[in-house]
Design goal:
CATH topology: Rossmann fold
Number of helices: 8
Structural class: alpha/beta
CATH class: Alpha Beta
Mean pLDDT: 96
Strand order of the largest sheet: 1-10-9-6-2-3-5
Oligomer: single chain
Strand content: 15-25%
Low-confidence stretches: none
Helix content: 25-40%
Order of helices and strands: EHEHEEHEHEEHEHEHEH
Number of strands: 10
Number of domains: 1
CATH architecture: 3-Layer(aba) Sandwich
């Protein structure tokens, strides 16, 4: 697990974008796993800039999103379909048929989840998975107590997650209580993971994920077992790490070829 502490979200987003861009340039037909929410917005903005100014080519890339609310149509302003279109897809040359987001209106959710897993496998598996982290340590919408071997499935959101996400809904009654989400096992199958976290509100979750014991009550802690997990955080999100000085020192000492 590589922990990179940078000054602010903008610096984190720039480094994260370089990691994603490197993956695409080395493998033009890369498969990306994408996240939503406020955390990856800066990353997506930087990827759009790299596409427009540096020619970063998404024409052969395939994407799979982590999750979607159950019951929201794709054109709902708070659906993750809408989020991805407005934040990324409409601004790059990604082919629409290569962009996959879970179907929140699926009539047979268990079958849809099995098909989504099969589609990821058929695409060759995810090369790089982008993640945020919830204040309770969830990744995707794998809430505390989720199986560390879980696959794509329906989940019920915790009251804490509902409170955290309520700000996105003008009408609280429209906020769904269920989601379709990739499982922790699905995430762990990716060849590389890029987790971003910003602010003091994520400091406890970051510390638990990076330095705490591995367990289902801290879903992100499973990443301690991932062979290529990059944890990119700003200074406020690092305040509960006991070895923050060491992580900074390690990053500063990396040879040039290993720097991001």
């Amino acid at each position: 697990m590589e922990v990179i502490i940078l000054s602010d979200p903008e610096a984190v987003s720039r480094v994260a974008a370089r990691i994603v861009a490197k993956c695409i340039r080395e493998k033009p037909h890369a498969v990306l796993g994408l996240a939503t929410g406020s955390t990856p917005v800066g990353l997506y903005r930087e990827l759009v800039r790299l596409h427009r100014q540096d020619g970063l080519d998404f024409s052969r890339v395939t994407t799979f999103n982590l999750d979607e609310y159950v019951g929201l149509p794709p054109d709902h302003p708070q659906s993750y379909h809408s989020f991805m279109r407005s934040q990324l897809f409409e601004h790059i040359n990604l082919r629409p048929d290569r962009a996959h987001v879970p179907d929140g209106l699926a009539q047979d959710i268990p079958q849809f989840c099995a098909d989504y897993e099969a589609a990821i496998a058929d695409a060759g598996g995810i090369d790089l998975q982008v993640l945020g982290i919830g204040s309770d340590g969830h990744i995707g919408f794998n809430e505390p107590s989720s199986s560390l071997a879980s696959r794509t499935r329906i989940k019920t959101l915790t009251p804490q997650t509902l409170r955290d996400n309520a700000r996105f809904f003008d009408d609280p009654s429209e906020q769904p209580h269920h989601v379709i989400t990739m499982g922790i096992g699905s995430i762990m199958d990716s060849r590389q993971v890029l987790l971003l976290a910003f602010g003091e509100g994520k400091a406890d979750a970051v510390a638990g994920a990076v330095e705490g014991p591995v367990g289902a009550m801290m879903p992100a802690s499973a990443l301690q077992f991932h062979p290529r997990a990059h944890i990119l955080i700003d200074e406020p999100a690092s305040t509960k790490l006991t070895r923050a000085a060491y992580y900074r020192w390690v990053y500063e000492q990396k040879p040039a070829w290993q720097r991001h």
